[in-house]
Amino acid sequence: MKPTAAILEQELKDARAREDEYRVRLARHRELSRKLRAQSDALRAALRTADEGPLDLDRLLEAVGRLSSQALGVPRTSVWLFDERHQNLVCRWQLPERDEGPRLAIAVASAPRYVNAIRGTGVNAVAVADVFADARTAELHDYLRRHDVGALLDIPIVGPGAVHGVVCHEHQGGTRDWHEAEIDFATDVGALVALLLEAERRRDAERMARGTEAKYQNLVEKLPVVVYSFDYNTAELDYLSPRMQDLAGHPPEHYLAANGVERWSATMAPEDRPLVQRRFSPRHGEVPEPELVYRINHPEKGRRWIRDTCALIRDARGKPFAVQGTLADITELRQAELWRAEAERRYQALLENVDVLGMVMAPDGRLQFVNDGFVRATGFSREEALGADAFTLLLPAESVASFRDPFVAALSQGQVQPRMEVQIRSAAGRLVRVLWTHTLLRDPDGEVSGVCSLGVDITLRVAEENAALEEQKMESLGRLAASVAHDFNNLLTVISAEVELLDPGAEATQARTQILEAVGQARSLTRALLAYARRETIAPTLVSVDELITNSAVLFERMVGRGVTLTLVAGAKGAEVVMDPSQLRQLIANLVVNAADATRGHGNQVRLSTAVVLMEADQARAKGLASEGDFVILRVADDGPGVTTEVADRIFDPFFTTKPDGTGLGLAMCDSIVRRAAGRIEVSNTPGQGAVFSVYLPIARWAESRKAQAPKVPPATALVPAGRRVVLVVEDVEPVRNLVVRILSEEGLDVLEAPDLATASQRLREQKIDLILADGRLPDGDGAAWAAACLSGGRVSGVVVMVSGPSIVSFAGPYAVLPKPFRLPALVETVKRVLA
User: Fold this and answer.
1) DSSP string over 156-203
2) What gap in Å lies between CA 107 and CA 829, rounded to an integer?
3) 49 burial via Cβ count (<10 Å: 0-12, 13-18, 19+)
């Protein structure tokens, strides 16, 4: 064991050695610090005076890092920077250089204590004497062991507003206490690195700014407009882009010189100059108009239209210091706008004056425009229409939802049905059939902005088409009915005649009566069928509706039967219509009987009334009438249960009936009779409160051209003996022909017979004939026309035509028409009357 003095002496020597070593190190640190400061000052000066060339940051970091490593005597020095999101510390440079590959990185989330230490407020250095004992480096043990690091001296790289990274000095081979001078030196190194990074950032920002400026300068110069800037301080233009030459005919320099604003104003139309002069000489606090449109005189192109847009530029204190804006030549656009305005004006005038319904709807159905034709046709004023929903305004309430929703949905998809027929409702409640043509309207972006609809009132046309179709249907049905009636009436003629010829014994009287009644009913059914088909022989004449009702009142009351009260109200005194009186009577009788059947057991009340009404043209069209004028309205109302909508829609169809024993011809015949008289029949209905049948008949003073004259039949004379007169019977149905021959022979006439016109003509050539009794329809021709020709040619003295339908042949001489089926007395009487 050494003596105490020796120990103390040894400790003193060690202390002096450490002190000498410290002095040497301190001197070396001071020298290196001096060099570092000199290098830093030189670097700062170089950065201040450097040109725009690139900054070699890696080379500078290497120089600083090697100097720092030498000064502190550490083998490992590195610079770590945070990435843009501050999620990782990435190694930018290290010594030894890249011995572990490029761009080492430490996740911030994996070393929160260390990261918080270098980010700490007021922290200039993180000096760790023992990395395995210090909590700040606890998360870095793997890295530290791998590189045999025992102590750290890390300096945060502090830039404007944030810590950007860290300069690391790593001591290998054990712990180390860091002296204050070393920490100060390392801090200077960190400041120098921060300076280098800031210099790089500024140099990059400057390069970017210069690049951006060049890019925008190029962009501004290539814009199809002139960019300008006006300085409030100098009251002069301080920038104009090169396109000023093309726009105004002078280069930018012409207006950038003194009094440039006055030169620019001088090119303008005199009335436009005050606009620009106010823009470039605003009063205190006045904001210039953001957009002006004015005219200039180009030295080569003449008058040009200019759009001038600008913005007021203010400094940080809010004081205006400049006006910046653009000038665009909009001459072509302005001309296009003027042409478009003129086209719209012409289109508007055309749409206003054309005789159709015109309207423009928004996509949601609101009316944006209506023309005079719309106002006239609908009766709605513009004030009522504009802004209103077109569907609610024009359609019946029950049709709005079912029509509007699909129409608007289609519009939203850019679709519309080009043509459609729609029944609209006028302001007066009149229904009008309109053929619409729709055209989609689109905005400049191609989006649907609405629909333009042009409509033609086709109410009258539809009525005429329906009438033509009805006429065709009636013609076809008439031919069928006439054919059926002809054959049917021939059978009825034979049946009724043979029954009349039976022995009139008591036992056969009842049977004969029943058969004749059945024949009569069949005859009525045939007449109804012919009347509906317009094949019945009629004699139209002037007839007073009120007088006919009054004269037939007892008949109508008998028809309604017991238990039903018939009320008559005559309100058309003196009004006459052109009709066959028997058909008018039959029309009223059918309606009265139907009403009585409907009300029996309910209210038991039937009301028959007449009135006179004036129908305007639009009202007549709505009713389906051929013309306007005065009309007799004949109404038959009951207080029965009414009819359903389905029944009302088909109530006038032939063979449609709701009665178990009905034929379906009664109301169909009424409709046919009314149409033949140029009238109209309709039914209105309130379920549970009865039905009203209304018949509109034109009054004769507006129907003189349609008045027909009844055939002039020779007045009946007293029956005279026929003598030995010769009668030619022309009938193709053998039983009827045999019957007529037998009856006339029994009356003392000489009777010849022929089954067709060819045989009849042969008989005329062979023998003188006094009278021809011919069927109207024969296999080889029109019997009535043939007989009329014989009569007018003087080949016979008289003609009797047997018909099952109407005869339109005129006769020049004695003639008679004998409708089938006929009774035997009528046959004999008619023949003798014509022969007389």
Assistant:
1) EEEETTEEEEEEEEEEESS--PPPHHHHHHHHHHHHHHHHHHHHHHHH
2) 133
3) exposed
Of 135, 161, 153, 181, whose CA–CA distance to 77 is shortest? 153
Q: What is the dihedral of CA 738, 742, 748, 754, to 10 degrees?
A: 10
The 8 Å CB, 24+ separation contacts for 501-506 are 501/824
448 is a domain residue: yes
Residue type, 694: S
Distance in angstroms (rounded) separating the CA atoms of residues 614 and 163: 100
AA identity, residue 491: L
Q: Give pLDDT, residue 479.
A: 72
Q: Which residue is it, tokens 């270098």?
A: 118
Angle between helical axes of 666-676 and 506-532 (0-180°, round to 10): 50
Residue 328's φ and ψ, nearest 5 degrees, are: -130, 135
Q: Which two tokens stand for residue 559?
A: 């028809």
The verdict on 35 and 125 lying in the same domain is yes
Calpha distance 693→683 (Å, rounded): 5
Q: Tell me whether residue 515 is in a domain.
A: no
What pLDDT was estimated at residue 504?
A: 62
Task: Tell me if residue 381 falls in helix, strand or coil.
Answer: coil
Under a CB-based contact definition with an 8 Å cutoff, are residues 266 and 297 in contact? no
Residues in the chain: 836
pLDDT at 634: 94
CATH code at 201? 3.30.450.40
Please count the CA atoms within 13 angstroms of the CA of 683 that sit on its side-chain side. 24
Q: Is 53 helix (H, G, I), strand (E, B) or coil?
A: coil
How distant, in Å, are the alpha carbons of 530, 536, 816, 821 from that of 804?
9, 8, 14, 8
Q: How many domains does the structure of the chain reveal? A: 5
What is the reported pLDDT for 662? 67
d(CA 152, CA 74): 10
Give pLDDT < 70 ranges for the chain. Answer: 1-3, 22, 25-26, 28-29, 32-33, 35-55, 98-102, 121, 216, 282-286, 474, 478, 502-508, 510, 521, 524-525, 527-539, 655, 660-664, 687, 701-723, 803-813
Measure the CA dihedral 167/170/176/181, to 10°: -30
Query: How deeply is 449 buried, as exposed, middle or buried, from its count of CB atoms within 10 A (0-12, 13-18, 19+)?
Result: middle
**Residues paired with residue 421 on neighbouring β-strands, in sequence order:** 435
Residue 41 sits in the same domain as residue 184: yes
Q: Which residues pair with 681 in a beta bridge?
A: 695
| Angle at alpha carbon of residue 516, lines to 512 and 519, rounded to 5° | 145
Residues ≥6 apart with Cβ < 8 Å to 111: 89, 139, 140
For residues 688 and 787, membership in a common domain is answered with no
Contacts of 444 (CB under 8 A, 6+ apart): none
Question: In this structure, are strands 565-569 and 605-615 parallel, antiparallel, or unpaired?
Answer: parallel
Vertex 401 angle, CA 399 and 402, to 5°:
65
Which residue among 706, 736, 759 closes a domain?
Answer: 706
Helix (H, G, I), strand (E, B) or coil at 674: helix
Q: Is 379 helix (H, G, I), strand (E, B) or coil?
A: coil
Cis, bond preceding 779 (omega within 30 deg of 0): no
pLDDT at 618: 81
User: Residue 2, exposed/middle/buried by CB under 10 A (0-12, 13-18, 19+)?
Assistant: exposed
- Cα 579 to Cα 196, 526, 799, distances in angstroms: 119, 21, 27
Instruction: State which residues form the domain around 280.
Output: 223-335
Q: pTM above 0.90? A: no
Judge whether 636 and 592 are in contact, CB under 8 Å. Answer: yes
Q: Do residues 57 and 182 share a domain? A: yes
Rounded Cα–Cα distance for residues 447 and 444 (Å): 7
CA distance 591 to 636: 7
Q: Please name which of 189, 175, 154, 171 lies closest in space to residue 76, comparing C-alpha atoms.
A: 171
Helix, strand or coil, per DSSP, at residue 754? strand
How is residue 76 written in tokens?
């490992």
